[in-house]
Amino acid sequence: MVINRPGIASMSLGRPWIHDLPGKLMQAAAHGFEGIELFFDDLDCYAQRTFNGDHLEASHQVRRLCERLGMSIICLQPFSMYEGLIDRAESDRLVNEKLPQWFILARALGTDMIQVPSNFLGPDPETKAPRTTGDRSVIVKDLQRIADIGAGEGFRFVYEALCWGDHVDTWEASWEVVRDVDRANFGLCLDSFNIAGRVYADPAAPSGKTPNAAADLAASLERLRTANIDPAKIFYVQLVDGERLDAPLDENHPFHVEGQPVRMSWSRNSRLFPFEESRGGYLPILDVAKVFFNDLGFRGWVSLELFSRTLANPDPFTPADHARRGIDSYYKMGRVLNWEGQEEKAPTSIAPPPVQHRL
């Protein structure tokens, strides 16, 4: 019987350069997480601080620690700003130089999956000229290119629509891309935040919502129910909520970043775990989750991918606090949706993370 397994993103436990990666992994395992989405920023920080910039040695050590903790590395991410580039020389560079290095690191980490978020490079900040194309055929060919190379190396790719993406910003658009790429090793990541954050939420509006939020989300979820997506093409899902802001996120808001999409600024500062309404959560995440698990029949990795200003808190208990909040959210979702095989585990430790060290 395939059951759901709890995962969390390494960046969701504390900021790199503030909270060390081994400590975050230890807290994730202690609180019951079985898998980690490993962010390259965390790996890079660990390599720079502990291994003189040797990413391969850092990868071997991360794998060793995860094995000792009984955790899997779900994926290495994000292989970003890739598909649909107008600058084809840069596209070639990413494929010919960056991608082989990521294969080496992913193999050392013991994962066969690399996550690819939809491109959000945006226009050139000086000329304002577009740097990506919305031409679906170019996007699909670019992703087929890495899928075909990855297939020969034993790797899978998981594609996720970001709600601030340049051209792919809805689950519908990402599924059309995955369908058209048509490769066994190229699948979909469905993220509750990015789905609801695009059609339901508008952090720039006083209400925090789009004009027809409830109806638009309901229509999108109905399309998801009836899209005939093979659950096997969903490589994993992410469950996360968003915080209702006290004021519109405009140029006067402290989260505003010049030139950055509003939804991206909101995402970087204000994600929450599901069922954290007391902290301001307001997206209909349960409605989205019901479609993932009850209608589509997904079973597998369920990752809690949270970005928040709270992750920058230098308190050494920050990783433990976020691990506790995340696993509490995961277990509550399991109880509400009656997931089979759900076993709640008490934390084995709540100690703050140790200083960085070689294993």
Automatic annotation (TrEMBL):
Pfam families according to UniProt: AP_endonuc_2
InterPro entries to which the protein is assigned, alphabetical: IolE/XylAMocC-like (IPR050312), Xyl_isomerase-like_sf (IPR036237), Xyl_isomerase-like_TIM-brl (IPR013022)
Highest taxon in the source lineage: Eukaryota
Domain Xylose isomerase-like TIM barrel stretches: 27-328
PANTHER family per record: HYDROXYPYRUVATE ISOMERASE, XYLOSE ISOMERASE-LIKE TIM BARREL DOMAIN-CONTAINING PROTEIN
Record-given protein name: Xylose isomerase-like TIM barrel domain-containing protein
